[in-house]
Design a protein that fits this description.
Elements lengths: L1 H10 L1 H15 L4 H17 L3 H30 L6 E8 L4 E3 L2 E8 L8 E6 L11 E10 L11 H7 L2 E16 L2 H19 L3 H12 L7 H9 L10 H17 L4 H18 L4 H18 L6 H15 L7 H16 L7 H24 L2 E2 L2 H26 L7 H33 L4 E2 L5 H24 L1 H11 L4 H23 L7 E5 L8 E4 L5 E4 L8 H7 L7 E4 L4 H4 L2 H7 L5 E3 L7 H12 L4 E3 L5 E4 L2 E7 L18 E6 L2 E5 L5 H4 L9 E3 L10 H8 L3 E4 L11 H10 L2 E4 H4 L2 E6 L2 E4 L1
Parallel strand pairs: 4-6, 11-12, 12-13, 13-14, 18-19, 19-20, 20-21
Antiparallel strand pairs: 1-3, 1-5, 2-3, 3-4, 5-6, 7-8, 9-10, 9-22, 10-11, 15-16, 16-17, 17-18, 22-23
Helix pairs in contact: 2-4, 2-12, 3-4, 6-7, 6-15, 6-16, 7-15, 8-16, 9-10, 9-11, 9-15, 10-11, 11-12, 12-13, 13-14, 14-15, 14-17, 15-16, 15-19, 22-23, 25-26
Amino acid sequence: MRGAAGEVVDRLRFHLAIGALAAGVALAPAAVEPAAAAAAVTGIALTSLERPRLAAAVVALLLAAVGLGEWRLHAIDRPGERLPAYTQIDERAELLERPRITARGTRAEIRLASGAARGAKVLATAEGPWPGPTEPGTVVRVRGVARPPASQDDAPFDWAAHLRRRGVARELALSEVEATGVRRGGIAGAVDATRRRAEAAIESGLPSDRAALMRGMVLGQDEAIDPLVRDDWRDSGLAHLLVVSGQNVMLLCALAYPFFALTGASPRTRIVVLLILIALYVPLAGAGPSLQRAAVMGGAGLVALASSRPASGAYALLLAAAVTLGLNPRVAGDPGWQLSFAAVAGILAARPYAPRSPVAAAVWLSVVATLATTPLLALHFEAVPLVSVGANLAALPAVAPVMWAGMLQAAVGQLAALGGVGEGAASAGGAALGLVVEPFLAWLDGVAAEAAALPHAVAEVSLSRAVLVAAYVVIVAAFVVTARGLRRAGPRVHEARAVLRVTDGRTLLALAAGGAAALVLVAAPLARPGPPDRLTVSFLDVGQGDATLIQDPAGPAILFDGGPADARVVRLLRQAGVTRLSAVVATHSSADHHGGLLEVLRRFPVDRLLDGGDGTTDPGFRALLREARARGVPVTPARAGQRLRAGPLTVRILSPPLRPPGPAPADPNPRAVVAHVESGGFDLLLSADAESPTLVQLPLPDVDAIKVPHHGSADPGLPAVLRALRPALAVVPVGENSYGHPHPDTLAALRRAVPNVRRTDRDGTVRLSVDGGRMLLD
């Protein structure tokens, strides 16, 4: 038995050597003691297999790798060590990425290009919009204060450790950013110029939202993707498509190889050119850990092919680990690195058992990758997408066309370097490819939105590190048991495979596309309820915000406000069976009311937008109006006296009156849209944030239900309003807040005057329906 084990060790001696290098570098950020312990265990294990020389070599490599890792860490940290905390900075710097908008302002990584800390990476932060140039590679002059990384209360991870893994030494609180008119040169400058030309070609052929997705998928740039769209891709399990990784490298080779074959070049020449292409693509697409891993594995496979030697997936994976860790020993703590290696390790382990049918293999690999990464997702993000397999299968027919078209756009864009005719050819080529690929991008975006909107699309799961290890032990044990079962069922498996091989490849691909279409166009809609069979009013639970949906069984649906953007009102609308909106009413300029409406316009056909902005200059509200006009949605300013009809529904606008000339008022609440909704004897008053000083001046009708003004804020005149309205139901749209909503005096007034009082922070979405003249509460 020992001899057989020794033979296995002999065959895997190079694997052990590369594994020892990777393990030693990975242990460097911790301490020498764990490395020494690992070396001792390795030595004992291999010595027991009667391979003392090999054991000594592996131990030596591991310890040498620890030293290499410590040297590399010192090289990474040395520039930052020359930048003491709370130092005033006035230096030139290179902008390494486009600034990202966050809840705290804007931020971007920069590298100092002058001064004692030259070469140090810092995270520059600005409280408002970015105060200078935004193009990566631009040299700017920055002024501010260097400080230790500030804690991020909203970050579900160790923010300081995250920055340290990225080689970021300090945060820089910016006071000023001054353009110098200079760009960095050398190889980095050439990469910047190449990337700019690729971006221009992509943007010349696609609308801005689709171009942002294409740049994410092909160039690894996700900063321009709408955060809500990014959330959809994450919750559907498609976020990996927005991270340049092994799939990109594989598709790049698959795209380029036939072109080189047409030239008559020898196979080895084609492989050399492919290696060069991979080497060029890595820095162009950001050189993230996943892409580094894919490049090394792809390169190892191509070298094996060129030398006519069998490729080893396990060896390539270990080599990729050694290289990526050698570049940055701390990268092992990066969730993206861990997920990438876990997915590939799972696929390599399961590859011998993969079905031969392309469709079945795609499902199989998706299931394997999902199982391999699920514990890590739960550990790092405390959320696991349950629709990942179905969404990835549905997305499968569009992924390769999108990637190939984006890569061709990036290649065609390089013609712009010739100037003149070259620029025109680059723009025309990018536009033509964009026209072809846009339907595929729309398909992917639709799959992500549909899958993310399904009930229970994401499970909230939290794992400790001990449970993580236990989860992987269970997964490996289940895999071993399954593999043994498959070997024992060999004859039956071969029979099943024979049946699958009866169908040719083209038919199987057609079945894959048809299955994907069925998933998106049939299964997803069927998973959501249809429209109600009677008049229904839903006071949607959007947290500290406001959104009211009115649906008539004849088809019309009207939405008053959309809550804050992060409430994802679109998902609530889909779950309510909405497919089209007869009207959307933006009652006034307030982010907790109009924030979610931008996504509504992008996701649903809308027949009309009633504009309650009252001339506001608020950027978010102005963006909403621009989006409506861009999509051909008629926009009507809301004014007292208007009547809006949608089937049996009648909306009568009671306020605001026409505003006199001049700037919009600082407080939009008193002039928010107040509406009386009628249908078949049912009456509803929606008052947005307009309180009693506005309401008592209006011709208030008797109503069956009201939405309580301004989230139940303190309003001494509310009792008089309630006496005029005499509602049977009052709903307070409110969420967790620091304003004291709903106010105790308001709640007391409601309890005295209204038989039924509900609030969305406790009752969730409040839904009432009207049946035979009776008002029913779900």
